[in-house]
Every structure is written in C-alpha cells, then in structure tokens.
Amino acid sequence: MEGMSEFDPEAFHARSRATWNASAPGYDKLSSALFGPVTEEFVAFAGVRKGWRVLDAATGPGLAARAAARRAGESGAVLAADFAPGMIELAAARPAEKRAAPLEWRVLDAQKMDLPSASFDAVLCQLGLMLFARPDDALAEMRRAAKPGAPVACLVQGRRSAMLFTALVMDAIVSRAPRLRAPKGEPTVFAFGPDGILEEAFSRAGLQEIVTKRLSGAFRFKSAEDYWTALLEGSGRTRALLDQLDPVARAKVQGDVLRRAAKRKAGAFVEIPYEFVMARGFAPRAR
Question: Against a cut of 0.90, is the pTM above it?
Fold first, then answer.
C-alpha cells in the first residue's frame, strides 16, 4: 500500500520543493489574508531589535521577513531564504517598505545553508520546521548561523485537536483515503504540536534557555465554501494530497469538510479554530 511505504527523505524533499514552488501564489494569498497578527506576535516573541541582522529560514512569501525588517529598522538587515525559487521570486517582487531593514532574498535549503557560522543576531522560521524532511538538520543549521547568545525561534502548527484550520481537511482526506497516511518517519504538519516535542527538538540542537508559547484563536470566513477554497488554493501539502484522490473520493472529502465547517458558523461568519506553538532558544554563548 502506498501509505505504508518507507519514508524516503530525498524524494520527499524533491516533492516538497515542487509542491511549494507551484503553490507560491496561493500560499501568499492565504498567509497575507490570515497570518499577519500571528506573524507579528511571533517576531516580537523572537525578540528582534533595531539594528539586528536577521535570518528568516523557509521564508515562503516573506511575511516573517518583512515583519522582522520593520523591527530591525534601517540600520538592520534581513536575509530571507527558501528552497522554492517560486516563493523567492514572488516575495522579492514586492517593493521595499520605508524605514525597514533592507531585505535580501536567496534560494537556500534550510537543512543545509551555505552561510557563514555565527553571523546573525536572530534566526527565525515561521511554519517551516514541521515540513522539513530532516527538521533536526534544519535546527542545527539555524543554531550554527546564529551568533553566540542569539535567539533562534520557530513557529509551528499546534495540536491536531486544536489546529482545526488544517485538521478538518487532513482528517477528511485520511478518513476517505487511508492509503494517504504519512509513512513512518515522514514529517506531518502536527508533528511538533504536542507538549514537549518542540522543546526536545530545540534541546537536541544545542539551544539553551528554551521557552514556548501557544497561540490560539479562530480564523473567520464568510462561508464554509470560502474556507474550503482558501485551503485548496493556499496549502501546498493539502492540495498535493487532494490531487492524489479520484474525483469521487475528492467530492466526498469536500462534502465532509463543508459539513464540518458549517457547524462552526458564528453569526455572519464561519470560525475555524487554530493553534500555533512557538519556541525560542539561544545559541550557546561564547566562553
């Protein structure tokens, strides 16, 4: 069965690169519409300050990079990196913001970055860690790139039971097509959501003084159909799974999601709960 095959990190990495490269415009639209407040809280949590040189790994369409640039100001600098050229091309096309740090956009794999060691005052990764074939390698690279004592911060999706924004669709897909369950060892979007998992990963990377915080709330949509469309167009992983379904199974998944989302109607809107987890640790200080 397809869902029981062994996990191949290299093949997974190649598929992910192609998926996110193709989904760049849709994910940009989704993240710009929904993730702004979460991004601001994440960058504040990371502690970015004026004049800092910041690395944003797996930047996607650059939401966290631009928030960091505003905090770092004109005396700072931000390097925004992603392994998908489509993401970098899209993000770099936007005009620079006034009184913000200059932004450099570069195609780089967060799991192996061709960057000098100990060269950034802060390293960020928003909604990327849980998608990497080798997340421990990525965290080790982030720590390596950070100056001694510099913060490394990651934002990931939370617990499956609380991150319904993603889980409503994922659960419907797996229910209708069990073969699409991730094979053992393959990353899942909820992998770092449970208590203690993100802290353990930061500890393995050698980061210190680790703290975490959960962010919860609800995203608002005009209708269940709008929610479905947003996920369909904006989520690379979800779209890739849906594309593996035959038309009948896909229609059933859509029906399941619309029914479940409609139950979340509150007044004039459909409110879909979300939960994110963010962690911050510090690179070891020089002795």
Answer: yes
